[in-house]
């Protein structure tokens, strides 16, 4: 059937009989959307996949455990021939023609009276693509359109999304470890719909280039050290803009709740009656080491991981870290915001019992093109980072895993 003869339409299958002949992987792929459309699905097949069986067991569809026979399409509105037997599929199509039932034939699309488009859903929109017998092309175009809708590069003026408050609100969005491609789909979508973006130094700056000109950009200048915008001032900016009816995205590096003071901002907004959406991010504690081929756990090497803030040094009365306990553990310590205090941290761990030759890997600007790794030990790491000129942001991994390489095959070495 030539492409131009296809007529793309939306079928209301709610409560209407749909017959799926075949219980294999093709039927498995088609079932979820048919069920989501409210169709009354009947599967005809001697055997089914576990996934199809699960839908049957859940009461979502009916299974006739036998081969197809003429008459199975009686009362059907729509049919799919999904077996691996060409003769059976042809028979299903023939019966469908006699009964004037639209039928999809999986093994020979041109022989059926209908084709299944590549379908995707976004924010209440159903996107369907037909490409005249080239399903990979259809799928690729569908994904491109959906990705554009998710990221905002394809405009959808009819909707701001279910998670965007109509009368103003705040989204705490984790921007990930630095690479703009590592922000979540939801985070990027909300960013594309923001009226105001409050950003700190560790958030992916490339994402800001995608913002429309009308977006108000507020730089929180929330550096780990030096001059910083007080948290109270940041809270005030979030609340004032939200109360003015604007949608505010608070874009942070990593995850908002991993040393990001995100919960403080949520508490402030909640006290002010401002609705808040929290979008988790990819935390640098694990993703940055991974980008540098440093695992934080490994079979036979490390079965525990502790993430520690180095913002307050050991021995400081403000510190809540039990350095004695960390010195006695065998697993991995991941240190964030601790480059300038690595010497003190290393001394505290060694004093608490950690061997001085414990491997250490320091990853600066992880996931970015400028990423670099400095490897040393607890005894020499302070001197090593000083000589290399390592500066924030950097993530430090302490433990046997920091000494592994891709060529290691003995997990217990």
TrEMBL record:
GO BP annotations, alphabetical order: cobalamin biosynthetic process; methylation; siroheme biosynthetic process
Keywords attached to this entry: Cobalamin biosynthesis, Lyase, Methyltransferase, Multifunctional enzyme, NAD, Oxidoreductase, Porphyrin biosynthesis, S-adenosyl-L-methionine, Transferase
SUPFAM superfamilies (UniProt xref): NAD(P)-binding Rossmann-fold domains, Tetrapyrrole methylase
Domain Tetrapyrrole methylase positions: 170-380
UniProt pathway: Porphyrin-containing compound metabolism; siroheme biosynthesis; sirohydrochlorin from precorrin-2: step 1/1
Name of one Pfam family that matches: NAD_binding_7
Family annotation (InterPro entries): 4pyrrol_Mease, 4pyrrol_Methylase_sf, 4pyrrole_Mease_sub1, 4pyrrole_Mease_sub2, CobA/CysG_C, NAD(P)-bd_dom_sf, Siro_Cobalamin_biosynth, Sirohaem_synth
Reactions accelerated catalytically: precorrin-2 + NAD(+) = sirohydrochlorin + NADH + 2 H(+)
GO molecular function: NAD binding; precorrin-2 dehydrogenase activity; sirohydrochlorin ferrochelatase activity; uroporphyrin-III C-methyltransferase activity
Originating organism: Saccharomonospora cyanea NA-134
Gene3D superfamilies: Cobalt-precorrin-4 Transmethylase, Domain 1 (3.40.1010.10), Methyltransferase, Cobalt-precorrin-4 Transmethylase, Domain 2 (3.30.950.10), NAD(P)-binding Rossmann-like Domain (3.40.50.720)
The name this protein goes by in its record: Uroporphyrin-III C-methyltransferase
Segment forming the signal sequence: none
Catalytic site: 200, 222
